[in-house]
Amino acid sequence: MESRVAELSAENRVTEAARLYERCMHDIEMMQQLGYCGGIENYACYLNDRDPALPPTTLMDYLPKDGLVFIDESHVMVPQISAMSKSDRSRKDTLIDYGFRLPSALNNRPLTFSEFEKVKPQTIFVSATPGKYEVKRSNDVVIEQIIRPTGLLDPEVEVRPSASCMEDLLKEIRIRSAQNERTLVTTLTKRSAETLNDFFNEQGIRARYLHSDVKTSDRVEIINALRAGEFDVLIGINLLREGLDIPEASLVAILDADHAGFLRSVEALIQIIGRAARNVNGKAVLYADKVTPAMKQAIDESLERRTRQQAYNQTNNVIPMSLVERLRQR
Predict the structure, then answer these.
(1) Model pTM?
(2) Which CATH number fits domain 54-143: 3.30.70.1620, 3.40.50.300, 1.25.40.10, 1.10.10.10?
(3) pLDDT value at position 130?
(4) How far apart are CA 297 and CA 264, in angstroms?
(5) H helices within 179-241, ranges in order?
């Protein structure tokens, strides 16, 4: 602490030096009196006498060498592992520079991606849309899980013109609502999601929206309310993708499906289309003025899977059934 305070003072950064001194003295006093302080992990290298040059201790250290790790939704998780250490470093560099933390705070960090690769045991990557890294690390050994125990098929996929999308979508929603089924609609922006929500409610359609501004705790409530039939349409942007299982949803509508970008990439389209694969009446409608390469690839892959699933069901006399999943207690 004294050396860092002296360094800041030598740079005529009096405010930062005073801030750091007060923070450290307060934390030391808290540890002496209570045995801990807020952010005590930032002093870990002093408390456990661990060599700062070593990788941080994580749960991975407790796995046996012959253990097996499953990385679910690996196309999302693998990039997150890579980004965690970088974002942590960026945040702490700012805290250190302005005198909120000692440089030792950098020693308490996530594993870098190279460190993760060294300590992870044998690994199975699970994803409907595996990334290049997973495919490369697996030496192109990909095991396809196409057949579902319920016999469910990948949804039918249709492309319809954008010009009449609102009229067509209202018709489709009312058909689903009459059958006590739900509809998921994806847009490109928060504003369009909220505007569409207002439009649907004006048309007598019970709808709500879900995007990053909605609190995480409220998201579960919204999804449970949709499944319980309190409303019929859920509008989203990027949250209606991985890990969202709503068996009651039989229709997925993708607006502006022909727009270029991350939200309409092959991987994104496949993931969104898959949200309708939990219902025996599942269908995905892509509203677009043209069929982009990403759309064509996503549609072709869904059709190829559906064809193989139908053949298996016919051969084995399997009758598809919608998933039955209990609602979470509120």
Answers:
(1) 0.76
(2) 3.40.50.300
(3) 87
(4) 12
(5) 190-202, 216-228
Give yes or no for residue 198 having a pLDDT over 90: yes
Contact 286, 160 (CB under 8 A): yes
Lowest mean pLDDT among 173-187, 216-230, 239-253, 292-306: 239-253
Q: For residue 210, give both structure tokens.
A: 């879900």
Cβ–Cβ < 8 Å for 16, 94: no
Q: How many CB atoms lie within 10 A of CB 193?
A: 23
**Domain boundaries defined on the chain:** 1-38, 54-143, 156-316
The mean of the pLDDT values for the chain is: 90
Summary count for the chain: helices (H), strands (E): 11, 8
pLDDT tens digits, 291-310: 999 999 999 999 999 999 99
Q: How far apart are CA 261 and CA 187, in angstroms?
A: 13
Which residues are within 8 A (CB) of 258 and not within 5 positions of it... i.e. 6 or more apart? 162, 264, 288, 289, 290, 291, 292, 295
Structure token digits, residue 41: 């992990």
In the structure, what pLDDT confidence band is assigned to residue 239 with cuts at 50, 70 and 90?
A: low
Number of residues assigned to the chain = 330
Domains 54-143 and 156-316 belong to one CATH topology: yes
What the block records as the tokens of 105 is: 């705070």
Q: Where are the alpha helices (DSSP H) in 179-213?
A: 190-202
Amino acid identity of residue 303, one-letter, is L
- The CATH number assigned to the domain with range 156-316 reads 3.40.50.300
Q: What is the pLDDT of residue 48?
A: 83
